[in-house]
Specification:
Layout lengths: L3 H14 L14 H35 L17 H30 L11 E8 L2 E6 L4 E4 L1 E5 L4 E7 L4 E4 L7 E3 L5 E5 L5 E7 L11 E7 L1 H14 L5 H9 L6 E3 L13 H5 L13 H4 L40
Parallel strand pairs: 1-5, 4-10
Antiparallel strand pairs: 1-2, 2-3, 3-11, 5-8, 6-7, 6-9, 9-10
Helix pairs in contact: 2-3
The structure holds copper (II) ion.
Length: 336
């Protein structure tokens, strides 16, 4: 029995240390959407723990009470069948559990898919987040600025991310602010998110997308409204404009550090259309590529180019990383 001491110590140490890791960031929410998810996770764990507790207590009770022992040697229990009360109990209880969890799931899903109730009266700040080859591009159409691998948002503000990808499917995830959502090349997906605590939160791609996947992280900085306005003003005054050539270079690169521009790529490389446009039955198939004909010939920067027989990878079947990978844009965990 003595040997178990170190094991218990290790277990306790892990319990103390692990909550500081980003892997449990979902249980340390800093915005309404993430808080809804965290509450749902904790509630589910409590319900499941209750079910387990009942099962194990009954199990131990039956083992102890009905085990073979001297006092009941040769005892054979009465044959029983059709106990209506017992059968009703074990049918109704699971129905109640499933119904309860269903209501919780529908309510929480509805909550995180929409603007949080406390920010309902605001027009959301729209930010396009597009991924390319292990980078994230953030375009602010209202401000007319663009960043790479970091995104700044004002605190207590509804933000609507519109997600798409210049390549494989990726998944946009800022664990402390909201759940993950897929970014695809042919349609936009929408993610509502708000931060209610000023701070820096790690964001990542949570869908494996190739060899650079592990380095595909970005910083989400939740700033006071005044700091945010100052930052936007400074970017507009000091950052270079994003030209089409510069943007092609950004797309071609495998990894990049942070970049800041005083114009967006949306003007010359529009995002893909809303999925609903061609699902309504009114549009034609070509409506899907809402970039318009003038962009069809510029397939390099169109997020949903027509299928081509050759991709950028075909010309270089085994690209090796010659230079060391750039360090992650977010160096630190968000320890409190
Ligand atoms: Cu579609």
């Amino acid at each position: 029995m003595k040997k178990k001491g170190p094991l218990y110590a290790l277990f306790l140490a892990l319990l103390v240390i692990l909550p500081g890791c980003s892997s449990l960031a979902v249980l340390n929410p800093k915005g309404p959407a993430a808080r809804t998810l965290s509450d749902t996770i904790i509630l589910s764990i409590v319900v499941m723990a209750f079910v387990l507790a009942v099962v194990y207590i009954l199990y131990i009770f039956v083992l102890v009470k009905y085990r073979a022992k001297k006092s009941n040697e040769g005892y054979i229990p009465e044959h029983e069948e059709g106990n209506k009360v017992l059968e009703a109990i074990w049918i109704i209880i699971p129905i109640i559990i499933v119904a309860f969890l269903s209501v919780v799931t529908v309510k929480s899903t509805h909550a995180v898919e929409n603007v949080a109730s406390e920010y309902k009266d605001q027009a959301p700040l729209v930010i396009y987040a597009s991924s390319s080859n292990w980078k994230w591009h953030f375009s602010y159409p209202e401000e007319g600025i663009e960043t790479v691998n970091y995104v700044n948002i004002p605190v207590h503000r509804a933000v609507e991310f519109r997600l798409y990808s210049f390549g494989t499917i990726t998944s946009f995830w800022v664990p402390q602010l909201a759940g993950q959502k897929y970014a695809m090349s042919d349609m936009l997906t929408y993610l509502n998110l708000s931060g209610d605590t000023v701070g820096s939160y790690i964001g990542k791609n949570s869908n494996f997308s190739g060899k650079g996947f592990a380095h595909m992280e970005f910083e989400t900085l939740v700033m006071t409204d005044a700091d945010y306005q100052d930052w936007v003003k400074e970017v507009k005054e000091t950052a270079p404009a994003l030209t089409e050539d510069e943007f092609k270079g950004l797309l071609a690169a495998e990894h990049l550090g942070r970049k800041t521009y005083s114009s967006t790529h949306l003007e010359f490389s529009p995002p893909p259309g809303d999925h609903s446009e061609h699902m309504s039955g009114h549009g034609t198939e070509t409506d899907m590529h809402n970039g318009g004909e003038e962009h069809e010939d510029n397939k390099e920067i169109h997020p949903s180019p027509a299928p081509s027989s050759q991709t950028e990878f075909d010309s270089n079947p085994a690209p090796e990383v010659e230079e060391p990978l750039p360090s992650s844009p977010v160096e630190e965990h968000t320890h409190e």
